[in-house]
C-alpha cells in the first residue's frame, strides 16, 4: 500500500482528486473547514468509487450513524497511536466495509421499556 497524498486542509481534497486517482481516502471526523462527514458527502457526489475510511478518537453513536448515512465504507477508532488505519484500508480494497462491531452495537436505536 502506498500513501499517495497527505493533506492538512480538507478543502484541498476535491481539487486534488481531479488530478490524482486514489482508491481509499482516510479522513478524521473533525477537521478544519470540512468535517469528515461533509467531505464524505462531497466525495460521494463525484467520486463514488473511492473508498472512505473515517477515523475518530471516541465512540460517538450520533456521528457514527451520520457517517454511515453519508456513505463511509469504514469507521474506526484511532486510539492506537493513529496506526490502525492500514489494515482497514486493505480490507476496504478487498471490498469489505469496516465498521467496528462494538461501535455498531452502540448505534442500535434505544428500545422503549415495556
- Strand percentage: 5-15%
Percent range for helical residues?
25-40%
Mean pLDDT: 79
Q: Poorly predicted ranges (pLDDT <50, ≥5 residues)?
A: none
CATH superfamily of the domain at 32-104: Response regulator
Strand order of the largest sheet: 1-2-3-4
CATH topology of the domain at 32-104: Rossmann fold
Tell me how many strands there are: 4
Helix-strand sequence? HEHEHEHEH
Distance between the termini: 51 Å
Q: CATH class of the domain at 32-104, anyone? A: Alpha Beta
Give me the number of helical elements.
Answer: 5
The coarse silhouette is globular
From the alpha carbons, calculate the radius of gyration and give it in angstroms.
14 Å
CATH architecture of the domain at 32-104: 3-Layer(aba) Sandwich
Layout of strands and helices, then pairs:
Blueprint: H1 13-19, E1 24-28, H2 36-46, E2 51-56, H3 61-70, E3 74-77, H4 86-93, E4 98-99, H5 101-107
Helix pairs in contact: 2-3, 3-5
Amino acid at each position: 500500500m502506498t500513501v499517495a497524498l497527505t493533506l492538512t486542509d480538507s478543502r484541498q481534497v476535491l481539487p486534488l482528486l481531479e488530478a490524482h486517482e486514489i482508491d481509499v481516502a482516510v479522513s478524521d471526523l473533525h477537521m478544519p473547514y470540512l468535517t469528515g462527514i461533509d467531505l464524505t458527502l462531497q466525495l460521494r457526489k463525484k467520486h463514488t468509487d473511492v473508498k472512505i475510511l473515517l477515523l475518530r478518537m471516541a465512540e460517538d453513536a450520533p456521528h457514527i450513524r451520520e457517517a454511515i448515512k453519508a456513505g463511509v465504507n469504514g469507521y474506526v477508532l484511532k486510539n492506537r497511536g493513529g496506526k490502525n488505519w492500514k489494515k482497514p484500508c486493505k480490507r476496504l480494497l478487498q471490498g469489505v466495509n469496516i465498521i467496528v462491531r462494538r461501535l455498531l452495537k452502540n448505534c442500535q436505536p434505544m428500545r422503549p421499556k415495556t
